[in-house]
From TrEMBL:
Role of this protein: Transfers an acetyl group from acetyl-CoA to L-homoserine, forming acetyl-L-homoserine.
Pfam families: HTS
Keyword hit for Acyltransferase: yes
Protein name, entry field: Homoserine O-acetyltransferase
Domain of life: Bacteria
Annotated site, Important for acyl-CoA specificity, chain positions: E111
Organism encoding this protein: Enterococcus moraviensis ATCC BAA-383
Gene that this sequence comes from: metAA
Site label Important for substrate specificity, positions: S192
Amino acid sequence: MPIRVPKELPAIKVLEKEKIFVMDEDRAMHQDIRPLQILILNLMPKKAETEVQLLRLLSNTPLQINVEFLYMCSHDAKNTSSEHLERFYHQFKAIKEQFYDGLIITGAPIEQLPFEEVDYWEELQEIFQWSNTHVFSTFHICWGAQAGLYYHHNINKYRLQQKLTGIYTHKVLTPTWSILKGFDDIFDAPHSRYTGVKRSDIALAKDLEVLAESDEAGLFLVGNKNNRAFYAMGHLEYDRETLEQEFKRDQLKGIQPNLPENYFPHNDTSERPQLRWHMAASLLFSNWLNYAVYQNTPYDLTKLLED
């Protein structure tokens, strides 16, 4: 089944070339079913790239999904045109009375800032609070995961000695959780961050459980025991070239970044990186949509207010 997106969203052309079934709003209006309502709070600078990455993963189920995008109006987006935001994104004030089956909160390249110094922190806190009563299940990614753990559980991030970047092997710790159904014992996933969250702090939160982690990269996936929130520290949504693009971007800035670990064959930047995490990415997002959202969300989303 397709994902439903605004008719002229540029990401549609990319997805159609990949033979991904995308349905525009006009066609979807004629289908007499209750699709899942998914909201994506896109905090990444290059929003169009993140749109493609996430829509690609959300399309990999037999469910019909209505996807909407949200941006922070308290932040000046320098890498995305105002026209794109006005056409395809909502401000929070426009959707705050609506209800959603699922919410995805992306990462953002601001992890070195204290949360309170982020220019849209006040607005994001309002969205976090709103999600408790207007969203059935929320999937947080990287900085979005750290921010969510800080807001909902008072778990702070800590600064790493150097940027963690590369592809790392992870162990599934709780295969009985439905979001990890079908996973092998180990899987690969990208990380790209300057900060982390301590396992010992997660252990103090009685409603959280560590679901997957890496000996090298640390925590990867944390779940709320009621399936209403998940926190992924890595970037399974990344494309093959994303870490390479970030590496070259940092070089141009004069940062002298570390070479992403386990990424370039023979550590040779002229060689094409191997793509070995998209199977896990597709499975994780499909499981989230199917087990955490579709099979549990109320048909009448206004019943979320009764929880």
